[in-house]
Amino acid sequence: MPRRRTSSSSSSTGSTTGATGTTAAPRNRTPQPVRIRRRSFGDFVKAFLAFVALAVLLVGVPGALATQIGWPLPDGVPSLDWLQQEITVHTFLNILTVIVWLAWAQFTACVLVEMKAALSGVGVPGRVPGGGPSQLLARQLVAALLLVGATAASFTPGLSQLGNSYDANQKPTVAAAQATPGLFAQQQEQASGAAAALAEQASHAAAHADAGGSTAQQGDTKFYRIQPPEGRHHDSLWEIAQRHLGDGRRYKEIFELNKDRVQPDGSKLSEASLIRPGWIMEMPGDARGGDLVEMPDEAPNVSPDVQQQISDYAQTGDHAQGAGGAQGGSGHAQGGGATQVSVPDQQRPAHGTGQQQATAVGAESDSSFGLPEALLAAPLLAAGLLGALGRRRRQALWQSAFGSVGGRRGMEPPTPTGDAQDVQDALLVGADPEGVRLLDRSLRGLAASLTEESRALPVVYAAWLSNGDLHLQLAQPAGKPPAPWQQGQDQTFWMLSRTDAERYEDVDTAAPYPGLVSLGTMDDSRLLLNLEAVPGIVSLSGREADRAAVFASVAAELATNGWSDRMTITLVGFGEDLTLLAPNRIRHLEDVEALVETMEAETRQRRGALGAAGHDSVLTGRTGPAQHTRWAPHLVLLAAQPSAEDAVKLAELAADAGRLGIGYLVGTETGDLPGAAWEMEITGQGKLLAPLLGLELDAQLLPAAQQRAVVELFVEADPERDTDGPATTPPFLVDISEQGRPAVYARLVGPYEIIGLDNPDGERSALLHEALALLLLHREGVHPRVLSSALWPRGVTDDVRSALLDRLHDWLGADPDGTPRLATDSSGRLTLAKTVVSDLDVLRSLYHEATQGKGVDSRAVRGRLLTDALVLVRGPLLADRPEGRYRWLTHEIVDAQLPLLVADTGLALCEFHMEKNRAEKAIEALNAALRTAPADERLWHELLRATHATGDTDRLTALATDLIGRSGARGLPPRTEALLDELLPTWRDAIAAVG
């Protein structure tokens, strides 16, 4: 008789997190009493009727057509006269006969596919194109025919489900951890050969033995042999429990019966997520199914070798119980992922892109200065948000710049305050744009290499990142990876070192895995889950506030990440509107009903599109010629608890989601969600647990307060917000009179120069100059963590940062009244005294005074101020900065602000001179502005008008020729061509003659 081990811990029912922070393992469902299933007379009747129906459909239909109607098609090639003949009843009968023949052929193909799947035991059979109802009918008839045997028991839903939809009969595949098998598989070895299908189920089952009792008689014990992978699917304890025990969550009973017992290959079962083909599993007594056997004595389809393996394995039961026992098993269950999972230094996937920022966080963890820790520890999320925010601010600047000249709102973006300012600083500290760039190039480079080798993209369930190394976990072995990728810890891991990743260049290929999103870290390793590849629903349980923080983090990173091209993110049940983060990606739906309706239509559309394109999955489509226009992922984040009915509908939709590029992350209060392939739980201590996968992560979160602050930053940067409001004032205005001479003057617009300070010693000069430049560009103040992360992107210790601040304080000195020129404000941010000024401060102040101050009422004052402002412009910002430094400028908006400010100054001075018909002076001002803003189309337009005002046609033609040369293959912008047509109608002929 089979054994069943129990313990006080293993009988726990999945309690919530306690005060101590420990979390109980998922509840185990106690095996039910034995239900003896004998073949009834009704089974034989159904089998006979199915045989008759198949005989009629497969033999009777073609026989009747052949004898009664004959060959419906013409005997020879039809002539044109045939098309003009009268259509008779006989013609209609022939057409109808052809249709019936085609339907018969399709049904016959469906029967053959179903029979092959049933007899070979491969699980869910393949689809016949356009089969639909025909394949459903074939499946039910084959199932009924084989009902008296055991072959169909494990693959068919049974006659009781006749009438259900074809898609509803397809159960979602299990979690990636089993399908791989194992997110943390130490080593996966394929069995030497395909395991033979075990014999039919015994006609009766024995009762359960008591907990802790000895192994019962061998003749009553049931066994299962792990099957080899078939296509994209691998056997797993969850699937075995689902098929033979009726509930996948009973996988732990199978695990407890087989833990630490020696398998035929000499290894042992130590993790529920790690099983191998050829292993033997003892099953609970109420297990049922055609690929189970009791003992091989009465199983003629089992080879002698397999019989011997099962017999040898059965002898290890008492040893396993004594060695591991219930205590060991329950300890494994209780431990979730903590006790049995670690990430070895060499074999485990490691945390990659973003590690430089993780190091910085770790080095300064003892002093967070009040910044949100959640964003400091999320380098990829922070980089995405910071990049999206920068693009939003630049868009606002450009829209403002091309609105009108002077006096516009938007030249100076609003300075955030309060929580928004803290969140912005946290983004600056935590962001790792270089890591995002390497991840994006690595994935696209892999896709390009596989395309060159005419290989399909492998299904990737997850990615691990550490120290720049990228490890992809595949759903199944996919052969040797293309260079420079290498085989990882086993055949389901592909690894790329940071050194090799840095050699990748940008390639023109579609993003292969845009659904990757960070979930958290474990042992300094960061996990990215590929949501669109999950074969079913990912469920998330826990307290509502904790779940919301996970959902917000996932949504924000998906919306702004740098390794995807296009995607649709549908949000339901979110308290904060996140649409502004990515209006082209995010959409909110009101309720689950609207979601179900939307996703039903989306699922049908994608299935049809894949079939029409001849692809088996979206991954195939991403490597073809239509890769840039098709198969963008659609990721659904349902934060609200769905009703039982809606949950079932979502489970049916998600059954085929992985193939279609659709991913579902659904929140649940109970942790019991139908169709959930991966079950996760977020605790009050910020741990993300998935015991079945062996995961215990420090979750990546975006709590409600930080979520509101992020949204506030994007609201303030919205280019459509208050476009008719007053112009903004620069954050710092200087005294531009003779009495306003600064004590320290830094020239940033052009080559970097400092007047009023002695040069520091040579070794630290560059670092101090860079720190001063950062402070000068942020007169509102700079957080110490922002300053240190800008100067040391890979991290720095507190003592080194403090030493730098001391040197900077000493170098800047104090004003004559004793006031230090470097101070700390009430929020702890570093600020410069008003006596420390940059030429950019002066430039902003001159332009502001000319367009909004004294220059508004005095033409002479306006001309003088604009001329003085343009004289300050000597080139781009920090034009001679050394290689490898000032990388923080990529986060700054000043690189877009300065060219626009210089262009506006040149345009305003041009207008000033043209009012008095001084075309040469206007041309001189425009050329000065073009040296810093050569791409500003407005400057070229005014230069064309000013040149036209001189009356020199040859000069205007030469300018048009220069413009065409600068535009390259793209040609002149439409507005520039229209202006030339107005000013010089013969410009095309003139340029052709010159060129």
Which regions have little confidence, pLDDT < 50, spanning 5+ residues? 1-38, 149-219, 296-300, 318-368, 404-410
First-to-last CA distance: 96 Å
**In percent terms, what proportion of residues is strand?**
5-15%
Roughly what is the average pLDDT, rounded to an integer? Answer: 76
- Widest beta sheet: strand line-up: 6-7-5-4-9-8-17-16-15-10-14-13-11-12
The percentage helix is 40-55%
- Computed structural class: alpha/beta
Major β-sheet annotation: 14 strands, mixed
Instruction: Give the total of beta strands.
Output: 22
Sum up the overall morphology in one term. globular
* Tally of separate helices: 33
- Using only C-alpha atoms, the radius of gyration works out to 36 Å
Notes on the structure:
This protein is an alpha/beta fold. It contains 33 helices and 22 strands. The protein has a 14-stranded mixed β-sheet with strand order 6-7-5-4-9-8-17-16-15-10-14-13-11-12. Helix 3 (89-120) crosses helix 4 (133-145) and helix 14 runs parallel beside helix 24. The longest helix is centred in the N-terminal third of the chain and has 32 residues, at 89-120. It is globular and about 110 Å long. The protein starts with 40 loop residues before the first helix and ends with a helix. The relative contact order is 0.08. Residues 1-38, 149-219, 296-300, 318-368 and 404-410 have low confidence and may be disordered.
Give a short summary of the structure.
By secondary structure, this protein is an alpha/beta fold. It is built from 33 helices and 22 strands. The termini are far apart.
